[in-house]
Known about the structure:
The chain is an alpha+beta fold. Helices cover 44% and strands 20% of the residues. The termini are far apart.
Amino acid sequence: MIQFLVGQAVSLAKNFQGRWQLVLLVNGVGYELQIPQAFAQQLTPLPPEPLQIFTHLLLREDQVTLLGFRQLAERDLFLQLISVSGIGVQLAIALIDTLGIEGLVQAVVTGNLAQLCKTPGVGKKGAERLALELKTKLAQWHKLQTWDETVPNRPQGDLLDELEMTLLALGYTQSEINQAIAALAQSSDLTNNCDLEEWIRQ
């Protein structure tokens, strides 16, 4: 319903439940948003410039909550998390806070249950469920990454998805993968090369 808000941060505090609440002033209206702790730490002290915050409106019988995220990918990864049975709103936020986007995606792709279990409230069964249900959905998350379509020799479609998934499984971070592929895309040796193993070797 509300994709994002752009406004001035006027207050930030924890509520009685220990959740971070940000008040964002937008055209004379103060919106209260629950945000992840990592995002709250970035907003301390409150910045003077306007913020763009991606949102998700959570409607329940007894409660209406507006959740705020610093990145579109973070918001959409959150939606993927709460689609898994047994993963609620607060646990999804805790996963993002504990592992970060890159660490969480890498843990799911590699089936690293020990890493997932570092999040308070996530047990072995919950970690197994996350890895099982989300691993096949990560291709959709990867497509949220921004690539320069004008870069020549950039791997396309399924090749790009498989390359990223494989490198994540090998322990590389998303930022390292982005830099490596951008550099390799400048090489004429890989022009029209659809060999996944060759891209990985390079």
